[in-house]
Amino acid sequence: MAPSPYVVPQVDSTAVFKPDIFKGKVLFCTGGGSGICRGMTEAIMRHGANAAIVGRKLDRLTQAAKELSEATGQTCIPAQADVRDPKTLRDAIDKTIEKFGRIDFVICGLSENAFRTVVEIDTLGTYNTIKATISHVRASKVLTFTSAQLSTTKGPLSKHMYLLRKRALTRYLLC
Q: What is the 8-class DSSP label of residue 22?
């Protein structure tokens, strides 16, 4: 007889952290319209942060922003951009700054597509996002960057992509 799997009980983050720990802060999240990044955005918003969710599909972003705002009582705005295109990314940042006046946290989303797309989005997209937001994050005196890649790995190639992304980001931040 096989041992039964252990299931970790789920704990509401508001039972662990102050409900308003991120009050007045702003999250900029690429890939925030769906998947794990949407979940991370919601969790941060539940603690008082406002958010800008960024992606290529404006209809998905608009719907997700509306749902996140309603679920959390915070403000979430959609900002259409492709992280492989620095100009559209800067436009999304400008929209965020215009609405909220700051960016405190950045989450760089992930992609699970073909190798070239993964390299472009997960590595180049992370680099472009960090490069474009770092002056705003430094101004807020909170230096926090998050990547969701490792939590969704599906084999050795995914882990290598995670490490490539981290190495590229580390080299940029040290320069």
A: T
150 inside domain: yes
Look up the domain containing 56 and give its range. 19-174
% helix / strand / coil in the chain, to the nearest 5?
A: 55, 15, 35
Identify the residue whose tokens are 């969704």.
152
Task: Kindly state the tokens that stand for 86.
Answer: 């620095």
Output the CA angle 77-78-80, nearest 5 degrees. 150
Q: What is the CATH number of the domain that holds 40?
A: 3.40.50.720
Q: DSSP letters along 142-163, please?
A: ---EEE-GGGG--SHHHHHHHH
Q: How far apart are CA 92 and CA 79, in angstroms?
A: 5
The tally of domains found in the chain comes to 1
In our burial notation (b when 16+ CB lie closer than 10 A, e otherwise), range 98-125 reads eebebbbbbbbbbbeeeeeebbbbbbeb
Paired with 80 in beta bridges are 55
148 falls within a domain: yes
Q: What mean pLDDT value characterizes the chain?
A: 81
Distance CA 39, CA 61 (A): 13
pLDDT tens string 105-129:
999 886 655 556 767 777 778 778 8
Is the residue at 78 inside a domain? yes
